[in-house]
Amino acid sequence: MEKAKSRAKLNDSSVIDARSLSQSHRRLAELLEPGMTVLDVGCGTGAITSGIAEAVGPTGKVLGVDNNIDLINKARERYQDIPSLSFETADIYDLPYEKQFDIVTSARVLQWLAQPEQALENLVKTAKPGGKVIVLDYNHEKISWQPEVPDSMKYFYEKFLQWRSDAAMDNAIADHLADMFERSGLTQINVSPQHEEVNRNDEGFETATFVWSGVATTKGGAQMIADGIIDRNSVEQASIDYQKWVEEKAEAQRMYLLAVEGMKLEKK
Ligand SMILES: C[S@@+](CC[C@H](N)C(=O)[O-])C[C@H]1O[C@@H](n2cnc3c(N)ncnc32)[C@H](O)[C@@H]1O
């Protein structure tokens, strides 16, 4: 579990800063109504959370929590002008809330956890009876690139998946969420595909492909080297080849992403 915790911290915040409710958590956007109370767990720098606050309006209440204090400080600074929105430091394994929220969400977080089932139990606990839990997550085994990425990048990505599963993270968690929801007693389970597909001429193309050059060139790659799963030359080669592929060949990238929602029973 400690391994998963330190590996989860390796995200570059420029990727999460650029997200929005309408683009990056579309199914949640459909569920929100004015006046709702919403908890966003693993909110990062609050980009999606601020969109949630806008959607529920001034009569609603939105709380974003994250276990990374630096991200919470940044979120507070960025969105201090929205009165119905607040941010707190909290760990998904230890949430100090109970039966308080109409909707509880956690986006792209369970993928980084060694005990996602336990995390889901905690999310359920914070929802009001009759409230909803909605989790958004990837199946990293189902990423697709057109045309294929260079072999050095394929090798890097394979090692990246191995590095994650060594830390007990579930690379295919998106496809396991519905069963997890059922086991945790949620009802009316609904699965919405939300795959992130970008094509060469799309506006978000650079940011989306940067996720991988980012992992390869920054802290993620360095940490994989330090953990002995891959050598420095292989990371550098993957990074060079991949950048070149992005510039010269890349047509499309699709990350497989599902939103899974369920309702908490009235009596729970
Ligand atoms: C990939 S980011 C997703 C941020 C945002 N939800 C989004 O979709 O853009 C994952 C976030 O989960 C947070 N996180 C990881 N483990 C956590 C834990 N145990 N408790 C709370 N937050 C956690 C990280 O700090 C990070 O901000």
TrEMBL record:
Q: Which parts of the sequence belong to the Methyltransferase domain?
A: 33-149
**Which Pfam families does the UniProt entry name for this protein?**
Methyltransf_31
Asked if the Swiss-Prot or TrEMBL record annotates the protein with the keyword Cell inner membrane, the reply is no
The record's keywords, sorted A to Z, are: Methyltransferase, Transferase
Q: Which Gene3D superfamilies match?
A: Vaccinia Virus protein VP39
In terms of SUPFAM superfamilies, this protein maps to:
S-adenosyl-L-methionine-dependent methyltransferases
A GO molecular function for this record?
A: methyltransferase activity
Q: Does the keyword Metal-binding apply?
A: no
BP GO terms, sorted: methylation
What's the protein called, per UniProt? Trans-aconitate 2-methyltransferase
Species source reads Gracilibacillus boraciitolerans JCM 21714
